[in-house]
Model the fold of this input.
Amino acid sequence: MNTTAPTTGPAPTTDPAAAAAPATSRVMAVPPAPSADAAAYFAARLAFHTDVADVHAALAEGAADFVVVDSRSTASWDQGHVPGAVHLPTAQIPQLARQFLDPAVPVVVHCWGPGCDGATRAALALARLGYRVKEMLGGIEYWIREGYAVETADGTRQLPADPLTAPLDADDCGC
Done:
């Protein structure tokens, strides 16, 4: 009778030289950070970013303890914007923020989408004015792609969710 367990990969080792062996993939060419460093990094990311699903859920539940700021141009705003958002183009933030935003209320800012740094520039401008701010990852592009309604110059519009970016059979993605 064979008492050796079958293996499906390399046997675990406690050899320090083996642990320091070069990575075999590009993924591990730079090793992961220690878990404490990773926890600090990801906590910091969540302090600076949110996503469209979480913003939509908070607005839909009436639990929004923040204001949404759309930092795009007026023509872009008229094409479609998050219902209830404040329109504050990035270039006008230093002059107009105090007229439209309460410094005691956190701000969630967005622009077009992940390929645009407009929201980052707007968030920086607001932070420099003393506002607590988060950037909405995905911008209006992912708001629309996830099937959420937008207000336009011609009224409310809602497109079906993109099946490659949003869950089709649930209210959320489960994360």
User: Anything to note?
Assistant: The first helix runs from residue 16 to 19.
